[in-house]
Write a structure and sequence with these properties.
This protein has no helices and five strands. It is mainly beta. It has one domain. The two termini are 20 Å apart. 0% of the residues are buried. The mean pLDDT is 82.
Length: 102
């Protein structure tokens, strides 16, 4: 998917932007870290999620059965600090619903 929303020229009006910093795998998991690019010219009160500087994503290695595709994943946001968000991606449990909240 591509995000085709308008991208404001004013960096103070842009959404928070994170870039892949590192990725590793081992012990049956894949871990990726994303670092924040903070706007340079914005007053702190105009920066969205200004205290969030890093996102860490951990995913279980999923064992796929040949001929049967895994169609969905679920995630949990793990309690973490004000500056780091930890997200665990996993196979959805039986009868677990996937929903968007707005």
């Amino acid at each position: 998917m591509f995000d085709t929303k308008n991208y404001p020229r004013d960096e103070c009006k842009r959404a928070a932007l994170f870039f892949l910093n590192s990725i590793s795998s081992g012990e049956g998991k894949t871990k990726s870290n994303y670092s924040r690019q903070l706007p340079k010219k914005c007053p702190p009160n105009l920066i969205p999620l200004r205290n969030l500087h890093q996102i860490k994503v951990t995913s279980e290695l999923l064992h796929l059965v040949p001929g049967k595709a895994l169609r969905r994943h679920c995630c949990d946001i793990v309690p973490s600090s004000e500056t780091i968000m930890d997200i665990n991606i996993r196979k959805c449990k039986d009868d677990e619903l996937i929903a968007m909240h707005s």
